[in-house]
């Protein structure tokens, strides 16, 4: 079985912004999309109500993980939900989404939002949303920790998320000194984000602390499984994401992710002409 190692790693830098967008950090930089394919960017945000009111998207998928606080989702297809710590929301923006993501009441919402690309032939699909509440994701117990599976299959369980393009997402919690070997498809590009604690990861046992992100080696074209070895030096919690590279040109501009600048301009024209529908209220 292919053993994963750390390819690159870095510590997220945060910017204090004041109100209502209190603090922000870029976990995955969109300038590195070729290395990250199929992932475009991931942002970590602390915000109050009024930060992410009605706005459009096209051409990609989002996976929003709520770290703390409460997040209210409203879309212009009549969708409405409140998500709390440990919940996630998946959105296929497809041909055109218009929604709002707001903190509830006086909460400060703390979230991670990942942008996952769509292949060209799926960029015109119908917008859809799916919530996965924390208690609905299966949890695998092992000595010294737990594995919660939101999307994809690992450790004999399948996550409840049903994305348009398959990807994996799991949350791993480890007690101090615990070891765990996480399995994921060897052909998937993958990354790890440390929410708390300190972990030695990969065959090189690279040390990663809180707010560290790391991309992993993978076997492009492989058909089997791979292993990621993890050892916790402190009580730790992290997220592992993986997806199969799409290998298409990406143009990400504002709230849209397309294959060319002309398609970006068309997205702006369609939005300005009202083709994304009414505002999310």
In a few lines, what is going on in this structure?
The chain has 281 residues and is mostly beta strands.
Task: State the domain count.
Answer: 1
Determine the structural class based on helices, strands and strand pairing.
Answer: mainly beta
Written as H for each helix and E for each strand, in order along the chain, the element string is EEEEHEEEEEEEEEEEEEEEEEEEEEEEH
| Distance linking N and C termini | 50 Å
Strand segment tally: 27
Task: Look at the structure and give the CATH class.
Answer: Mainly Beta
CATH superfamily: Jelly Rolls
Shape: globular
Strand content: over 45%
Q: Can you give the helix content as a percent range?
A: under 10%
Please give the radius of gyration in angstroms.
18 Å
Query: According to CATH, what is the topology?
Result: Jelly Rolls
**Mind summarizing the main beta sheet?**
7 strands, antiparallel
CATH architecture: Sandwich
Overall pLDDT metric: 97
| Contiguous runs where pLDDT drops below 50 for at least 5 residues | none
Strand order of the largest sheet: 2-23-20-25-18-15-14
Q: Can you count the helices? A: 2
GO molecular function: metal ion binding
Keywords: Iron, Metal-binding
Protein name: Pirin-like protein
Domain Pirin N-terminal: 49-116
